[in-house]
Amino acid sequence: MERKLTLYVVYSLLFLGISLGIVWLYINRSEELIKMGIDQNLFYIALIPLGFSTASFLFGVMRSNAHFSGRQFNGTLQLGGPVVVFMLTVLGGFFLVKNMRSFDYLLLVTGKKDQPLEGDFYSLRLLVGAELKTVKVEHANARFFGIPYVYRSQTADLYLDAPGWTFENGSNKMEISFVGQSQQIKIVRDTCLQEVYGNVY
């Protein structure tokens, strides 16, 4: 009995280690995974060894019991033992992320010397698909909410609404890529206006 108990403990720790290893990979290689479009898939994969680990611990070590009964396809479905906990763990993970259909993205605005550009005199507009999102910049930050997850690792057009200012490329339009959680952008004085009116101090 003691040998069997030890075996369950080993199984539980082994599967837990695999699950934590996948989570570690997700955290430390998130940008690469997002670029490949498999970041969410990796989360679902991590649920499988986690389910095995939970089932092994509860039923092999803790000697717990579980039972599920329901009707499916004009018949009765009865499940018992570790399979119930495995299903609850995996399906619970699916339930937790079922609403992960959008994400937020933060833009950090800096000036000519890479310092945060304070002030509320400008706003940013982001064209995501057919939707144009407008955000007033506050404390050099502009956060866009509710971007559809399908645009993760994709690009979108960003527009600057600030008279006398442009992006670093000399235009009021630039392209950004939704990689990571945030991105730094730089805006500068419009050089065309400076040539006509002189420098503004």
Summarize the structure.
With 201 residues, this protein is an alpha+beta fold.
**Unreliable residue runs:** 64-68, 194-201
What value does the Rg take, in angstroms?
A: 26 Å
Count of DSSP strands: 10
Strand content: 25-35%
Order of helices and strands: HHHEEHEEEEEEEEH
Compute the separation of the termini in Å: 83 Å
- Which geometry do the CA atoms define? elongated
Main β-sheet: number of strands, strand sense, barrel status?
Answer: 4 strands, mixed
What number is the mean pLDDT? 75
Q: Which structural class is indicated by helix and strand composition? A: alpha+beta
Q: For the largest beta sheet, what order do the strands appear in spatially?
A: 6-3-10-8
Q: Compute the number of helices.
A: 5
Helical amount: 25-40%
Present the secondary structure layout.
Elements: H1 2-28, H2 30-36, H3 39-61, E1 67-72, E2 75-80, H4 82-96, E3 102-110, E4 123-128, E5 131-136, E6 141-148, E7 155-161, E8 165-167, E9 173-177, E10 182-189, H5 191-197
Parallel strand pairs: 3-10
Antiparallel strand pairs: 1-2, 3-6, 4-5, 4-7, 7-9, 8-10
Helix pairs in contact: 1-3, 3-4
Task: Outline the structure in words.
The chain has 201 residues and is an alpha+beta fold. Helix content is 39%, strand content 32%. The chain contains five helices and ten strands, in the order αααββαββββββββα. The strands form three sheets. It has a four-stranded mixed β-sheet with strand order 6-3-10-8. α1 runs antiparallel to α3 and α3 runs antiparallel to α4. The longest helix is centred in the first third of the chain and has 27 residues. It is elongated, with a radius of gyration of 26 Å. The C terminus is likely disordered.
